[in-house]
Structure formats: C-alpha cells, structure tokens
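Hi Prof. W.,

I finally got the ORF4 prediction working! I wasn't sure whether to trim anything, so I left the full sequence exactly as given:
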Amino acid sequence: MTPRYPPWLSCNLCTPKLRESVFPFPGFSVYTKDYNRRTWTNRQRIHEKDKKVLKKLRKLIGKMYDLTVDWEIFPDTTCIVSLPKMNFQSGAIPGTFVPIREGPPNESHFEYQMIGDYRIQVTYYVVRGISYVAGICIYLEDPYQDPIFYNEKTIRKLMNGPEFMAACVLFEDSIHIVLRKAYNKNMVLTRNKYGEELQWTFNEDEKKFEPFGPIGPTTYQMKEEENPRIQSKFIQPKMCENLQEIVMITERNGKKVHVKWNKETKEMDLFPCESCNRCDDPPPDYMFVVPNQERTGSLSY
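And this is what came out:
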C-alpha cells in the first residue's frame, strides 16, 4: 500500500514544499504552498477572510508539543503537517514515516487510512499482526477552509496510543553534564531510549531548562568526571562477596560501585553493591586497641 492524497491537493499545479525547520523545533514537518487570497467587503472596506482553521491547528499542536506555535513555525501557507510518533521520523514523501529502530523485516509493513473527508491520513506500522500508529498527516486545502474537519479528540487518541518499541536495540535513558566547546559553558546532555541526544541550557529568567542545538558529537566534550579515560584511572579490581567473582570497582559520591563498559552507549555503567561497601576487615576489638594504664603510669598491652 502507498499513501493517498486529497484530490484537491494532487491536482493542484503548485507543488507543496518542505519548510526548513526553525530551532527549537519539534519533530513534526511542515509543507507549504501558495494560495489565492480571499476577501470580503463591508462598507466599502476590504477585509481578508478569517483563518480559523490555522488558529485551531496551531493551538492543538502547541498543546501536544508543549510549545508556542506561531506563524513562524506554522505559516499561513501551510498545506500539510506531518506528525510522527515516538521512534519514527517523517519520511521524504508526506504521509510516509521511517522507524528509527525497525521491527523484523519479514514481519513488519505499513498501512494507510484516510479519515475526516480526506483531511487526515493515518499511517500504521504493523509488526507481527499488531498495528501501531507511526504518525499522521494533516492536509489543508487553504487557510480559509470551512468547515473545520479536524477533531481534537480523534487526533489526540491516535497520537497517544501504544508506542512501537524495538526492545532489542533500546538504550538506557541517560543524562550528563558536558562542556559546549563553542561557548565554554556547561550544558546538560540527555539521551533517550532510542539513542537520540539533546542538549539543554538553563534559562535564568524563566527558571527552566530549554533545548539548545542542534548538536553533534564534535560540539561538546565530556566533563573530566564523566570522561571514561579519567574514570578508568580510579577503577580497581576487587572480589565481590555477593557475586563471588572479580569485578571492577570505583567510588561515586563516597560509595563503592561496580563498573561495566557499555558497548552500545560507549559509557561506563555503574551499579551499587552493598557487600562491596562493607569494610574488607572487621575492626579490632576495643580491648585490644585501648592500652591498660597501671597505677604507676607505665603502659602495658
């Protein structure tokens, strides 16, 4: 199966163009095309028709992504909005989505469904007979479209459904303090279960963390205490009583922890261990430490 398109879009001579994203920008894609301005006259004054559909969709998408969506992100010329779900990215063609981590090649495929009078296309990723919403595409004929066909409850239900996860290749969620080279400033680096990284900086005025990017491995460096090369200098072998095997040990926040090298994330994974935090040798009895002082003042043990 292949994506379907509204008849009024496919026969339009003006081909939709992908709009370049403006950072900070969520994962959705916006396509634009020219349109004919519509007006009405009142008391010999010309007014442009109301663009209610744009107001509704900007508000809806803003709620979904916790973002203020204005004309810069969602311009008046918008004709298609591609909204991928977690673990998917918008494809090169509107209505297509690409999984960041694919399911089994011989047991997964895509299916498409057009709803809402050719205004919303739902793309399903079917894995072993189970359908997951990969994303939806919203189509606008023009900014004056009336009536408004987009049901908020339907869109939210589709986007909030079960997520597809390729469990065999998931990463551990992580957070690190890194040094952004260009600004010589500390940043927070997060990595989600799909291996996607994002940098954050603290907004002093609004007292909150905000995304700061785009980023790449060459734009930052690990802080010394996070750098595996620095960490390795403080790692020692030790026999763990609990596991009954030799493990690698280091200290973090005053406590001993097991250290294992994670080949997937290229980082040190730390694991707490109660037995390794107990003293290696029991303290000597009090009577053997405190000397006996005889009446003469001499000391004997």
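Residues 294-301 have pLDDT under 50 and may be disordered. Does that look reasonable to you?

Thanks,
D.
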